[in-house]
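In the current project phase, we have settled on a layout for protein records. A sample record is reproduced below.
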Amino acid sequence: MSYRIAVFDAKPYDRATFDRVNKDFGFELVYHKEHLDINNVLLASGADAVCIFVNAVVDSAVIDKLHSYGIKLIALRCAGFNNVDIAAATKKGIKVVRVPDYSPHAIAEHTLTLMLCLNRKVHRAFLRTRDSNFSLVGFQGFDMYGKTVGVIGTGKIGKTAIGLFKGLGMNVLAYDLYPDTAFAGANDIKYVSLNELYANSDIITLHCPLTKETEYLISDQSISKMKDGVMIINTGRGKLIHTKHLIDGLISGKVGYAGLDVYEEEGAYFYEDHSDRVMTDDVLARLLSFNNVIVTSHQAFFTQEAMGNIAQTTMQNIQSFFENKDLKNEVIYKA
């Protein structure tokens, strides 16, 4: 039996990768360019499962519609699942699976890219030299060697990033609810409290999941505890940072640099071309106006290796469900 999968938020690169991987699975893939929400959930009618990405809005109303269509599986092709009402899905008997990791190297390397570009003003130098201006005024950076980087979240991505930082000769402070003391000892890093990390880090990078406890982890309160001129990097989830408070920190100079691959209201803009429209998000527009801020479009994951891994794991998750096998990547509701 061939199962029909409604694949939402499908870009050309998604289709190319999933079509290639699907040769080993044989599903009927129906692609939709829209991200799943209440306005287009009707597109899932007739499917056996839906496959979604980070910008889907799968609240209880969408869950109810999916249930009425007989859909029993929501397959996330990403690690985060904060955009799905897991409680509502569980109540309706709909399973939710995800891709917990696909390439920690992709995220970690993009994190380092943002750090280096901000430090050495590469983004500004590129624009300046396009205009035949080869002045160095305003471009002085600092040696990464010997600086202290605070890593919040030491899962696979955080640990991979730490390996890159240690390779540059940086000192590493780490925070995690579940410290890996064996890893710390083997890699000469130190687990500390958040307050100690804030106070002593030249650079702070976020690699923790978005939960009720971590939402707006970076706010005016935490920023006030940081070094003057601190660099903040976020390749995790947008709502880890209170953006308006970050902007206040940039204006005051308390925050010297910000590298953001995610944004708390990114669903309205990211992954689409808005170059011919007026920017109506005043907060995002303000962020983009700073020359010491780099915003990339949630692309840290976007490597050939990661895309292949995402498609492979997603397809395997779907196959396991329909074959009644153990769902090792299921998202379990915790009351």
